[in-house]
Amino acid sequence: MLPALEENLVKGLAHITGGGFLDNIPRILPEPVSVEIQLKVVPVSPVFDFLVNNGKMDLEEAYRVFNMGIGMVAVIAAENRNAFLGAVTEEPVLLGRVVSGDRTVRLLR
C-alpha cells in the first residue's frame, strides 16, 4: 500500500475491524457520498460462510460484525484505478464504487 500512498493515489483508508464494513467505511466518507459494495466480488473465507450459515446470521449483520476477510478498504478515484493496481503489492479486490449519498454503505447482492 505504501507506494500507492506515496503517489497520492488513495483518497481514504478504512481498517475493517469491529464494526465491519457498515460502521468503518462511513467514517472516511465526506458528505454527500455513499459506497456501494458488490457482495458477489468479496472473496469470503470459508470460516465466515460457516459462521453466517450455522449462526443463522443475516448478511448485513455479518458485514457489520466481521470483516468477511477484507482487512482494509482503500477509496481511490476511478481515473487512478490502473495506477493503484500497479502500485500495490497485495492482491486488491475492486469491491464497489462511491456514489451520491448520505455516508452509508449499501450491500448489493
Question: Can you tell me about this structure?
Answer:
This protein is an alpha+beta fold and 109 residues long. The chain has a single domain (2-108), classed as Phosphoribosyl-aminoimidazole Synthetase, Chain A, domain 2 (Alpha-Beta Complex). It has 5 helices and 5 strands, in the order H-E-H-E-H-H-E-H-E-E. The protein has helices at 2-6, 20-24, 46-54, 59-65, 81-87; strands at 12-15, 33-38, 72-75, 96-100, 105-108. The radius of gyration is 14 Å and the shape is globular. The model has no long low-confidence stretch (mean pLDDT 95).
Low-confidence stretches: none
Q: Under CATH, the topology is which?
A: Phosphoribosyl-aminoimidazole Synthetase, Chain A, domain 2
Number of strands: 5
What is the CATH architecture annotation?
Alpha-Beta Complex
Q: N-to-C terminal Cα separation, in Å?
A: 28 Å
Q: Structural class from helices and strands?
A: alpha+beta
Instruction: Provide the number of structural domains.
Output: 1
Helix content: 25-40%
The CATH superfamily label reads PurM-like C-terminal domain
Indicate the proportion of strand residues.
Answer: 15-25%
Main sheet strand line-up? 4-2-5
What is the string of SSEs from the N terminus onward? HEHEHHEHEE
Which term fits the overall shape? Answer: globular
* Top-tier CATH class: Alpha Beta
The major beta sheet can be summarized as: 3 strands, mixed
pLDDT average, as an integer? 95
